[in-house]
UniProtKB/TrEMBL annotation:
Family assignment from sequence similarity: Belongs to the SEN54 family.
UniProt feature, compositional bias: Acidic residues: 237-254
Annotated protein name in UniProt: tRNA-splicing endonuclease subunit sen54
The UniProt record lists the keyword Lipoprotein: no
The species this protein was found in: Verticillium nonalfalfae
Keywords per UniProt: Endonuclease, Hydrolase, Nuclease, tRNA processing
Amino acid sequence: MPLDDDDNPFLTPSPAPAPLAGKGIASANNGDPDAHDNEDDPADAPFDMALFASMFSKKGVSSQTIRKGQKDFEAHGTRAQDAALETSRRVIEDVLAYTRLHTGDWNRGWLFADYWPAALAELATARPEFVAALDPALHAADRVVVLEELKGPQNRSVGRTVRGMKPPSPAVGKVWLLPEEALFMLERGSLDLWWPDRTLQELMPGLAIKRSRGAMTGGKTTAQRGDDNHSGAPADGEPEADREEEEEDDDEFADGVPLSLQAAYALLIGVEGERGKITLPKYQVYAHLKRGGYHVQRAPAGETATQAAPSPASTQPKSVWQWLFSLLSRPERGRQAPPFGPLVRPGLYRKYAPIYKQLELIPRFDPREKAADTAAPEDPFKVFFHVWRPSKHPIFSKSDPPPPDLRIAVVDARDTFVPELEQLEALFDSTPYDPADASLSAPGRFYPRLKHGHRNVLISVVDRGLVNFMRFGQAAFADEKLYERFDLPNRGRGGKRGGGRGGRGGRGRGGRGRR
């Protein structure tokens, strides 16, 4: 690592990289190469802007140009210090002035925030069955960016195509993005977002319009088409190459203008409930998960618990014959608690199960039963994202995804308190019944079963950009009957010939003595 020369005012920055960095470190530590200075730790040092400058052909930038470590307390008026500061400012300005470029094979998208609400309103009158059959997970009204062509590995989990649209509707078969998807692709450099100056019908016309335009130009000669395109001979005194460059520049911005990242944030980030936009905390959670490699999609609008829980067998007779048989097989009433006296009847008990069954006075909670008067979940304690682990789903279909591995609700730590019991109950009832896997069914793994619960939701708490996750699970402690473990057949030590300690022929005490 280069020597931090803040203590040497007479050392000027060199245009070439500093050789023998190891010697510099040794001299800074009084000749001890094993000494370590925390301020020179590469993990704690700021990012070197000179690396950025070298990426776009900036020559003669020294590794000491951008000053790091402890700064001078005050200016001492030397030329060395002034030159070092000026060189550092110049490199930072060059880095910040770098122009972001997009090649022709990158994704190009157009922002049409108001297209789908108007289109769905027209389709609701002309084709109401089409609007009724739309997938709730599609979120068609919130899709604001249409891509000319989606390229790259993000095609597996980003964007959706609204199926069922027919010509002459524009952008048939094109991929539409949600605000968080477009903003994330723009941040990572996979999208070139443009603001259109033309309508969607003009930019991406339907198939019937394309055929009609082809028929209009099909009967013309090459000269006629050249006249229509203004591609004849150049004017007197005007070079042909200059005219072609001007036409290319004019055609580049004839359909719209590119948007910067700041403009995209202003157009796609909004308040809660604003159509076509997403709040900043929710986008931060989305970007955090996508950078981790997860597949993330919005939860379907108005999601309910679609997976029915296995309800216990009903004891209500449904017919006359069932009622007659129920009289013959009526359950015993001796298990009712006596009005006075001990709860456990005196007697000889060889197992724990009869004792604990007599102690069951209050009906235990059954997670398979859903309350009839459950309220609908309200923001912010409402599932907003469905998440899939890439290791569990190496082949992911965004149009037909499997059941999600995680369900996430997003809250802002600045204006949200700890959820109340009613809010958690409404949140749990909106999720399907999801017990623990069969791998956790062993008697000794009841702690992982309790942690997983029968319904669980992750609540992402965003505190000024810091994303944290808290798991809330609906567990049934009464289902973990620990006393049944003691009623199992004794497999412990001793008791049999050749068994554990103390048995006949065993190694325990009490056997034959040594000879």
